[in-house]
Structure formats: structure tokens, C-alpha cells
Specification:
Elements (H helix, E strand, L loop, with lengths): L1 H15 L3 E3 L6 E2 L7 E2 L4 E4 L2 E5 L5 E4 L3 E2 L5 E2 L4 E3 L6 E10 L1 E7 L8 E5 L5 E6 L13 E6 L5 E7 L4 E8 L4 H24 L1
Antiparallel strand pairs: 1-14, 2-16, 3-6, 4-5, 5-10, 6-9, 7-8, 10-15, 11-14, 11-16, 12-13, 12-15
Helix pairs in contact: 1-2
């Protein structure tokens, strides 16, 4: 029975080991953003089943002119999305929940905190993170990748807010990658082996 419990724990660990805040999604898909330079625009389709929106009246999507992040440098020449103020939010909404999502971020450090959060289809908070980015004031096109990775495809909304937060290179992982399945199968294999040994001893 003890081995059976160990095998169950291994199977659970195979799934839960993937969850939490991540600093990269190398196995994800980058969703390209077209440069358009628009201000105060309506919701935008970033990809099939992925819609960007913001409640900021001065929000930008695809803005590629110079965008300053006070005390954290600037971005120029690469398309970004931002609520473009210190208090509004923007979000990605997914028709089908994803397993992981993230982006390259920067924000104005002297305008307070910038926060990212993941929500499920019922708008229940899965997890959130206050960003910590400290770049030279003269830096250009620098940022830090932040995102969330869950053990199942449970993220329906990715919300970003505060401090003139800017994002580019939105990246998603829609389904578990083969390595996750391999870990799960390994855990289940241990479970079956332990159960078989238990029956043989009885």
C-alpha cells in the first residue's frame, strides 16, 4: 500500500511540477502583433480565438513608435500593447482555455506596481504576480518575460494592469507538450507496477 501511495504522488507531481510563474515559454507559440500605431482602439483579434481588449481610454495596440517607461528605458520600433496609463487594465481572452501564457513586459517604475493575473472561464483568479523589472533608464527595447504555466489548460483570461505596463511577444501554449504526457505516463506506469506487485503478494 505504501508503494501505491508513492506511485500516486509521482503521478501527481508529474502534473503539478509544471505550474506557476515562468520566465520563458520556449515551447509556446508567439502571436504576432501587427504594427499600426493606433490610440484608443476597440478590441483586437490577436489570433484565431484570442482577443485583446483594454479599458484604458488611451490604450494602444500595435504601437511601434517610441514608448517610454519612466526610469525603465524605452521601446521603439517593435509593436506593443498597453493601457497607456497608470491604472487601467488590458487582457487577452481565449475562446478555448490555454495551458500557459506570457509576454515580454516593461513598465514605468515610478507609476506604482504593474501586475499580471490569470483567470479561469468563470473569472476565478488562478494566480497573479507583481512584476519586478529594473532596467537602466537609457535602455532600449529591453524587458523581462513573465507568464503563467498551469498543469491543465485552465487559463481563459490573461489580465495586465498598472504603471503604464507594456507587452509584446505574447506567447501561448494551448495543449500539454509531449514531455508532460511522458511524465504522466511514467507516473501511471509506476502506479500500475505497484498495484501489480501488491496483488502478487496477497
Amino acid at each position: 500500500m505504501k508503494k501505491l501511495l508513492i506511485a500516486l504522488a509521482c503521478a501527481g507531481a508529474a502534473l503539478s511540477a509544471q505550474a506557476g510563474v515562468v520566465s520563458s515559454l520556449s515551447d509556446g507559440t508567439v502571436l504576432p502583433m501587427t504594427a499600426n500605431g493606433g490610440f484608443g482602439i476597440a478590441p483586437q483579434t490577436l489570433a484565431d480565438g484570442v482577443v485583446w481588449s483594454s479599458d484604458g481610454e488611451r490604450s494602444v495596440f500595435g504601437y511601434s513608435d517610441m514608448f517610454g517607461f519612466n526610469l525603465n528605458g524605452k521601446w521603439q520600433g517593435m509593436a506593443l500593447a498597453s493601457p497607456n496609463d497608470g491604472y487601467s487594465m488590458m487582457q487577452l481572452a481565449f475562446d478555448k482555455p490555454v495551458m500557459a501564457v506570457g509576454a515580454l513586459f516593461n513598465y514605468g517604475r515610478n507609476y506604482g506596481n504593474a501586475t499580471i493575473a490569470a483567470y479561469d472561464a468563470s473569472h476565478q483568479l488562478i494566480e497573479s504576480r507583481v512584476l519586478q523589472i529594473n532596467l537602466p533608464d537609457d535602455s532600449v527595447n529591453q524587458g523581462v518575460f513573465y507568464g503563467f504555466r498551469e498543469s491543465t489548460a485552465s487559463i481563459s483570461y490573461f489580465v495586465m494592469s498598472g504603471a503604464y505596463i507594456g507587452a509584446t511577444d505574447f506567447t501561448v501554449l494551448a495543449v500539454p507538450e509531449p514531455s508532460t504526457y511522458a511524465m504522466l505516463l511514467g507516473g501511471l506506469g509506476l502506479l500500475g507496477f505497484a498495484a501489480r506487485r501488491q496483488r502478487q503478494r496477497q
